[in-house]
Protein backbone atom coordinates (compact mmCIF):
# COMPACT_ATOMS: atom_id res chain seq x y z
CA UNK A 1 0.00 0.00 0.00
CA UNK A 2 1.36 3.44 -0.88
CA UNK A 3 2.46 5.82 1.85
CA UNK A 4 -0.10 8.59 2.48
CA UNK A 5 1.01 12.11 1.67
CA UNK A 6 0.60 14.94 4.13
CA UNK A 7 -2.74 16.76 3.71
CA UNK A 8 -2.44 20.28 2.33
CA UNK A 9 -3.06 23.13 4.76
CA UNK A 10 -3.06 26.13 2.39
CA UNK A 11 -6.29 25.53 0.46
CA UNK A 12 -9.50 26.34 2.28
CA UNK A 13 -12.64 24.52 1.17
CA UNK A 14 -14.97 26.14 -1.34
CA UNK A 15 -17.52 28.21 0.64
CA UNK A 16 -20.70 26.22 1.26
CA UNK A 17 -22.83 29.19 0.20
CA UNK A 18 -21.39 28.94 -3.33
CA UNK A 19 -23.24 25.63 -3.85
CA UNK A 20 -20.60 24.53 -6.37
CA UNK A 21 -20.67 20.80 -5.70
CA UNK A 22 -16.88 20.99 -5.32
CA UNK A 23 -14.64 20.52 -2.27
CA UNK A 24 -10.99 21.31 -1.70
CA UNK A 25 -8.61 19.76 0.78
CA UNK A 26 -8.52 16.28 2.31
CA UNK A 27 -11.24 13.76 1.52
CA UNK A 28 -13.98 13.63 4.14
CA UNK A 29 -16.40 10.97 5.28
CA UNK A 30 -19.67 11.34 3.38
CA UNK A 31 -17.99 12.59 0.18
CA UNK A 32 -18.08 10.60 -3.04
CA UNK A 33 -14.88 9.41 -4.68
CA UNK A 34 -14.10 7.98 -8.09
CA UNK A 35 -11.68 5.06 -8.40
CA UNK A 36 -10.11 4.16 -11.75
CA UNK A 37 -8.22 0.87 -12.12
CA UNK A 38 -5.37 0.00 -14.48
CA UNK A 39 -7.82 -1.00 -17.24
CA UNK A 40 -9.75 2.26 -17.00
CA UNK A 41 -12.74 0.77 -15.16
CA UNK A 42 -14.43 3.30 -12.92
CA UNK A 43 -16.12 2.98 -9.54
CA UNK A 44 -17.99 5.74 -7.68
CA UNK A 45 -18.98 5.40 -4.02
CA UNK A 46 -19.50 7.33 -0.80
CA UNK A 47 -16.74 7.30 1.81
CA UNK A 48 -17.90 5.72 5.07
CA UNK A 49 -15.53 5.22 8.01
CA UNK A 50 -14.86 1.54 8.68
CA UNK A 51 -16.24 0.38 5.34
CA UNK A 52 -14.44 -1.52 2.55
CA UNK A 53 -14.58 -1.39 -1.24
CA UNK A 54 -14.42 -4.83 -2.88
CA UNK A 55 -13.46 -5.75 -6.44
CA UNK A 56 -11.89 -8.64 -8.34
CA UNK A 57 -8.57 -7.18 -7.21
CA UNK A 58 -9.28 -7.54 -3.51
CA UNK A 59 -10.39 -4.77 -1.19
CA UNK A 60 -9.56 -1.20 -0.16
CA UNK A 61 -10.40 0.37 3.18
CA UNK A 62 -12.29 3.66 3.09
CA UNK A 63 -10.23 4.74 6.12
CA UNK A 64 -7.11 4.69 3.91
CA UNK A 65 -8.70 7.40 1.74
CA UNK A 66 -10.39 9.61 4.33
CA UNK A 67 -8.11 12.46 5.37
CA UNK A 68 -5.86 12.37 2.29
CA UNK A 69 -5.66 14.89 -0.54
CA UNK A 70 -7.25 13.55 -3.72
CA UNK A 71 -5.02 12.51 -6.58
CA UNK A 72 -3.23 9.49 -5.15
CA UNK A 73 -2.86 5.79 -5.97
CA UNK A 74 -3.94 3.01 -3.61
CA UNK A 75 -2.92 -0.64 -3.89
CA UNK A 76 -5.62 -3.17 -3.01
CA UNK A 77 -5.15 -6.32 -0.94
CA UNK A 78 -4.62 -8.33 -4.15
CA UNK A 79 -2.19 -5.88 -5.76
CA UNK A 80 -4.58 -3.84 -7.94
CA UNK A 81 -3.73 -0.16 -8.34
CA UNK A 82 -6.49 2.45 -8.14
CA UNK A 83 -6.33 6.16 -8.87
CA UNK A 84 -8.44 8.16 -6.37
CA UNK A 85 -10.08 11.54 -7.12
CA UNK A 86 -13.30 13.31 -6.36
CA UNK A 87 -15.63 12.90 -9.38
CA UNK A 88 -15.96 15.86 -11.74
CA UNK A 89 -19.44 16.94 -12.80
CA UNK A 90 -19.07 15.34 -16.24
CA UNK A 91 -17.94 12.09 -14.60
CA UNK A 92 -20.74 12.16 -12.04
CA UNK A 93 -23.60 12.56 -14.51
CA UNK A 94 -22.63 9.63 -16.76
CA UNK A 95 -22.45 7.24 -13.81
CA UNK A 96 -25.27 8.47 -11.58
CA UNK A 97 -28.50 6.48 -11.08
CA UNK A 98 -30.95 7.07 -13.92
CA UNK A 99 -34.67 7.30 -14.32
CA UNK A 100 -34.79 8.98 -17.72
CA UNK A 101 -31.81 9.13 -20.07
CA UNK A 102 -29.25 11.78 -19.14
CA UNK A 103 -28.16 14.79 -21.16
CA UNK A 104 -24.52 13.96 -21.96
CA UNK A 105 -21.77 16.37 -20.89
CA UNK A 106 -20.97 17.36 -24.48
CA UNK A 107 -24.55 18.57 -24.96
CA UNK A 108 -24.86 20.12 -21.49
CA UNK A 109 -21.68 22.14 -22.17
CA UNK A 110 -23.10 23.34 -25.50
CA UNK A 111 -26.37 24.34 -23.82
CA UNK A 112 -24.62 26.29 -21.05
CA UNK A 113 -22.33 28.07 -23.53
CA UNK A 114 -24.56 28.68 -26.57
CA UNK A 115 -27.77 29.32 -24.64
CA UNK A 116 -25.61 31.70 -22.56
CA UNK A 117 -26.59 30.49 -19.09
CA UNK A 118 -25.09 33.07 -16.71
CA UNK A 119 -24.93 33.73 -12.94
CA UNK A 120 -28.26 35.14 -11.79
CA UNK A 121 -30.22 33.94 -14.85
CA UNK A 122 -33.82 32.86 -14.49
CA UNK A 123 -33.98 29.49 -16.27
CA UNK A 124 -36.89 27.12 -16.87
CA UNK A 125 -36.20 23.49 -17.79
CA UNK A 126 -38.55 20.79 -19.09
CA UNK A 127 -38.15 18.01 -18.12
CA UNK A 128 -35.83 17.25 -15.26
CA UNK A 129 -35.00 13.71 -16.42
CA UNK A 130 -32.36 12.28 -14.09
CA UNK A 131 -30.98 15.70 -13.09
CA UNK A 132 -27.84 15.70 -15.26
CA UNK A 133 -28.53 18.95 -17.12
CA UNK A 134 -30.04 20.44 -13.94
CA UNK A 135 -26.66 20.15 -12.19
CA UNK A 136 -24.97 22.10 -15.01
CA UNK A 137 -27.70 24.75 -15.06
CA UNK A 138 -27.59 25.22 -11.28
CA UNK A 139 -23.82 25.56 -11.27
CA UNK A 140 -24.06 28.15 -14.07
CA UNK A 141 -26.79 30.33 -12.50
CA UNK A 142 -25.32 30.09 -9.01
CA UNK A 143 -27.29 30.50 -5.78
CA UNK A 144 -28.58 33.92 -6.89
CA UNK A 145 -30.23 32.74 -10.08
CA UNK A 146 -33.11 30.31 -10.43
CA UNK A 147 -33.75 27.02 -12.20
CA UNK A 148 -37.33 25.81 -12.33
CA UNK A 149 -37.59 22.22 -13.56
CA UNK A 150 -40.88 20.75 -14.75
CA UNK A 151 -41.20 16.97 -14.74
CA UNK A 152 -44.35 15.03 -15.61
CA UNK A 153 -43.36 11.72 -13.97
CA UNK A 154 -42.97 11.57 -10.21
CA UNK A 155 -40.50 8.66 -10.33
CA UNK A 156 -38.18 10.67 -12.60
CA UNK A 157 -38.51 13.71 -10.32
CA UNK A 158 -37.49 11.59 -7.32
CA UNK A 159 -34.37 10.31 -9.11
CA UNK A 160 -33.45 13.84 -10.23
CA UNK A 161 -33.88 15.18 -6.68
CA UNK A 162 -31.60 12.52 -5.21
CA UNK A 163 -28.91 13.02 -7.86
CA UNK A 164 -28.89 16.81 -7.63
CA UNK A 165 -28.79 16.75 -3.82
CA UNK A 166 -25.98 14.19 -3.91
CA UNK A 167 -23.84 16.21 -6.30
CA UNK A 168 -24.25 19.46 -4.37
CA UNK A 169 -23.85 17.73 -0.97
CA UNK A 170 -27.17 19.19 0.18
CA UNK A 171 -27.77 18.85 3.93
CA UNK A 172 -30.55 16.49 4.97
CA UNK A 173 -33.93 17.97 4.11
CA UNK A 174 -32.44 20.76 1.95
CA UNK A 175 -31.72 21.30 -1.73
CA UNK A 176 -29.94 23.88 -3.87
CA UNK A 177 -31.47 27.29 -3.00
CA UNK A 178 -31.86 28.21 -6.69
CA UNK A 179 -33.76 25.05 -7.62
CA UNK A 180 -37.53 24.64 -7.80
CA UNK A 181 -38.58 21.15 -8.95
CA UNK A 182 -42.24 21.00 -9.94
CA UNK A 183 -44.42 18.08 -10.98
CA UNK A 184 -46.54 19.15 -13.91
CA UNK A 185 -46.75 20.31 -17.51
CA UNK A 186 -44.52 23.12 -18.75
CA UNK A 187 -47.25 24.73 -20.85
CA UNK A 188 -49.43 25.21 -17.78
CA UNK A 189 -46.57 26.08 -15.46
CA UNK A 190 -45.06 28.86 -17.57
CA UNK A 191 -48.10 31.02 -16.94
CA UNK A 192 -47.21 31.15 -13.24
CA UNK A 193 -43.92 32.88 -14.05
CA UNK A 194 -45.67 35.86 -15.62
CA UNK A 195 -45.26 37.42 -19.05
CA UNK A 196 -41.66 38.15 -20.11
CA UNK A 197 -40.16 37.07 -16.77
CA UNK A 198 -37.87 34.21 -17.85
CA UNK A 199 -34.38 34.63 -19.35
CA UNK A 200 -33.75 31.12 -20.75
CA UNK A 201 -35.97 28.11 -21.46
CA UNK A 202 -34.55 24.64 -22.12
CA UNK A 203 -36.91 22.11 -23.72
CA UNK A 204 -35.85 18.48 -23.28
CA UNK A 205 -39.14 16.85 -24.26
CA UNK A 206 -40.84 14.87 -27.02
CA UNK A 207 -42.91 17.70 -28.51
CA UNK A 208 -41.27 21.08 -27.83
CA UNK A 209 -43.12 22.63 -30.79
CA UNK A 210 -46.35 22.45 -28.80
CA UNK A 211 -44.86 24.85 -26.21
CA UNK A 212 -43.69 27.61 -28.55
CA UNK A 213 -46.57 30.01 -27.86
CA UNK A 214 -46.18 29.62 -24.07
CA UNK A 215 -42.40 30.01 -24.38
CA UNK A 216 -42.79 33.21 -26.40
CA UNK A 217 -45.08 34.67 -23.74
CA UNK A 218 -42.72 33.83 -20.85
CA UNK A 219 -39.35 34.84 -22.38
CA UNK A 220 -37.95 38.34 -21.96
CA UNK A 221 -37.08 40.17 -25.19
CA UNK A 222 -33.64 38.87 -26.14
CA UNK A 223 -34.17 35.70 -24.12
CA UNK A 224 -33.17 32.33 -25.53
CA UNK A 225 -35.07 29.10 -26.07
CA UNK A 226 -33.02 25.93 -26.55
CA UNK A 227 -34.63 22.66 -27.67
CA UNK A 228 -32.94 19.28 -27.20
CA UNK A 229 -34.38 16.62 -29.53
CA UNK A 230 -33.23 13.18 -30.63
CA UNK A 231 -34.58 12.66 -34.17
CA UNK A 232 -34.54 14.50 -37.49
CA UNK A 233 -38.34 14.61 -37.61
CA UNK A 234 -38.42 16.35 -34.22
CA UNK A 235 -35.66 18.68 -35.37
CA UNK A 236 -37.60 19.70 -38.47
CA UNK A 237 -40.84 20.25 -36.58
CA UNK A 238 -39.36 22.46 -33.85
CA UNK A 239 -37.28 24.54 -36.28
CA UNK A 240 -40.22 25.16 -38.61
CA UNK A 241 -42.58 25.98 -35.73
CA UNK A 242 -40.16 28.56 -34.30
CA UNK A 243 -39.70 30.00 -37.79
CA UNK A 244 -43.43 30.24 -38.54
CA UNK A 245 -44.21 31.79 -35.14
CA UNK A 246 -42.51 35.02 -36.20
CA UNK A 247 -41.52 36.14 -32.71
CA UNK A 248 -38.08 34.52 -32.75
CA UNK A 249 -34.88 34.96 -34.70
CA UNK A 250 -33.99 32.35 -37.32
CA UNK A 251 -33.54 29.04 -35.43
CA UNK A 252 -30.00 27.65 -35.30
CA UNK A 253 -29.83 23.82 -35.33
CA UNK A 254 -26.66 21.77 -34.78
CA UNK A 255 -25.17 18.68 -33.17
CA UNK A 256 -21.75 17.96 -31.68
CA UNK A 257 -19.63 14.84 -32.11
CA UNK A 258 -16.70 13.97 -29.83
CA UNK A 259 -13.81 11.72 -30.83
CA UNK A 260 -10.83 10.85 -28.65
CA UNK A 261 -7.31 10.27 -29.96
CA UNK A 262 -4.69 7.63 -29.25
CA UNK A 263 -1.27 9.23 -28.73
CA UNK A 264 1.83 7.10 -27.99
CA UNK A 265 5.09 8.24 -29.56
CA UNK A 266 4.69 7.94 -33.32
CA UNK A 267 1.40 6.06 -32.97
CA UNK A 268 -1.00 9.01 -33.27
CA UNK A 269 -4.42 8.12 -34.61
CA UNK A 270 -8.13 8.56 -33.88
CA UNK A 271 -9.33 6.47 -30.95
CA UNK A 272 -11.64 3.52 -31.39
CA UNK A 273 -14.33 5.12 -29.24
CA UNK A 274 -16.45 8.08 -30.28
CA UNK A 275 -19.44 9.83 -28.76
CA UNK A 276 -21.48 10.30 -31.90
CA UNK A 277 -25.06 11.45 -32.20
CA UNK A 278 -26.83 11.95 -28.89
CA UNK A 279 -29.22 14.78 -29.77
CA UNK A 280 -29.83 17.84 -31.91
CA UNK A 281 -29.84 21.29 -30.32
CA UNK A 282 -31.82 24.28 -31.58
CA UNK A 283 -31.58 27.84 -30.26
CA UNK A 284 -33.51 31.00 -31.11
CA UNK A 285 -33.82 34.43 -29.49
CA UNK A 286 -37.07 36.14 -28.55
CA UNK A 287 -37.93 39.29 -30.45
CA UNK A 288 -39.53 42.23 -28.65
CA UNK A 289 -43.34 42.00 -28.54
CA UNK A 290 -44.82 43.01 -31.89
CA UNK A 291 -41.47 42.84 -33.69
CA UNK A 292 -40.54 40.35 -36.38
CA UNK A 293 -37.13 39.38 -37.76
CA UNK A 294 -36.13 40.52 -41.27
CA UNK A 295 -37.48 38.36 -44.06
CA UNK A 296 -34.97 35.83 -45.36
CA UNK A 297 -33.75 36.72 -48.84
CA UNK A 298 -32.33 33.28 -49.57
CA UNK A 299 -35.07 31.18 -51.14
CA UNK A 300 -35.62 27.56 -49.99
CA UNK A 301 -34.01 24.69 -51.87
CA UNK A 302 -36.17 23.27 -54.69
CA UNK A 303 -38.70 20.85 -53.26
CA UNK A 304 -38.07 21.89 -49.64
CA UNK A 305 -41.74 22.74 -49.15
CA UNK A 306 -43.12 20.55 -51.92
CA UNK A 307 -46.36 18.52 -51.89
CA UNK A 308 -44.83 15.84 -49.66
CA UNK A 309 -44.04 18.35 -46.91
CA UNK A 310 -46.83 18.50 -44.29
CA UNK A 311 -45.22 20.51 -41.49
CA UNK A 312 -45.50 24.21 -40.58
CA UNK A 313 -45.09 26.40 -43.65
CA UNK A 314 -43.61 29.94 -43.62
CA UNK A 315 -46.15 32.56 -44.67
CA UNK A 316 -44.07 33.66 -47.68
CA UNK A 317 -43.83 30.12 -49.07
CA UNK A 318 -46.57 29.12 -51.57
CA UNK A 319 -48.90 26.22 -50.63
CA UNK A 320 -46.75 24.00 -52.84
CA UNK A 321 -43.19 24.76 -53.83
CA UNK A 322 -43.58 26.98 -56.90
CA UNK A 323 -40.15 26.04 -58.17
CA UNK A 324 -41.33 22.48 -58.74
CA UNK A 325 -44.13 23.75 -60.96
CA UNK A 326 -41.66 25.82 -62.95
CA UNK A 327 -42.68 29.17 -61.48
CA UNK A 328 -39.84 31.71 -61.19
CA UNK A 329 -39.47 32.85 -57.59
CA UNK A 330 -37.12 35.66 -58.57
CA UNK A 331 -33.60 36.36 -57.50
CA UNK A 332 -32.72 36.49 -53.80
CA UNK A 333 -33.54 39.93 -52.49
CA UNK A 334 -36.31 40.65 -55.01
CA UNK A 335 -39.39 42.12 -53.31
TrEMBL record:
UniProt catalytic activity: adenosine(58) in tRNA + S-adenosyl-L-methionine = N(1)-methyladenosine(58) in tRNA + S-adenosyl-L-homocysteine + H(+)
Stretches assigned to the tRNA (adenine(58)-N(1))-methyltransferase catalytic subunit TRM61 C-terminal domain: 94-264
Bias (Polar residues): 1-11
Keywords, sorted A to Z: Methyltransferase, S-adenosyl-L-methionine, Transferase, tRNA processing
Chain segments carrying region Disordered: 1-20, 288-335
UniProt keyword annotation of tRNA processing present: yes
Gene3D superfamilies, per the entry: 3.10.330.20, Vaccinia Virus protein VP39
SUPFAM superfamilies linked to this entry: S-adenosyl-L-methionine-dependent methyltransferases
EC number of the protein: 2.1.1.220
Keyword Nucleus among UniProt keywords: no
Leading EC class: transferase
SUBUNIT field: Homotetramer composed of a dimer of dimers.
Function according to Swiss-Prot or TrEMBL: Catalyzes the S-adenosyl-L-methionine-dependent formation of N(1)-methyladenine at position 58 (m1A58) in tRNA.
Family: Belongs to the class I-like SAM-binding methyltransferase superfamily. TRM61 family.
Xref: PANTHER family: TRNA (ADENINE(58)-N(1))-METHYLTRANSFERASE (PTHR12133), TRNA (ADENINE(58)-N(1))-METHYLTRANSFERASE, MITOCHONDRIAL (PTHR12133:SF1)
Protein name, as recorded: tRNA (adenine(58)-N(1))-methyltransferase TrmI
Species of provenance: Nocardioides potassii
Amino acid sequence: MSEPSEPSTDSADVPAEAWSGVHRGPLREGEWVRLVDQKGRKHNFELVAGKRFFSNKGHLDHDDMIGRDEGFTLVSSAGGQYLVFRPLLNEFVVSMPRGAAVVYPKDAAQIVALADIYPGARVVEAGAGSGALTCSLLRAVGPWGSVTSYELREEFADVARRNVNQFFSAPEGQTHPAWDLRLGDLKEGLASHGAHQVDRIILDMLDPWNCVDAVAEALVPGGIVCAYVATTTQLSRVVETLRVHGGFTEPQPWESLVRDWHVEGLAVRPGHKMIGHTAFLVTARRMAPGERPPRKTRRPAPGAYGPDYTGPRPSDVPPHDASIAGVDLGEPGDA
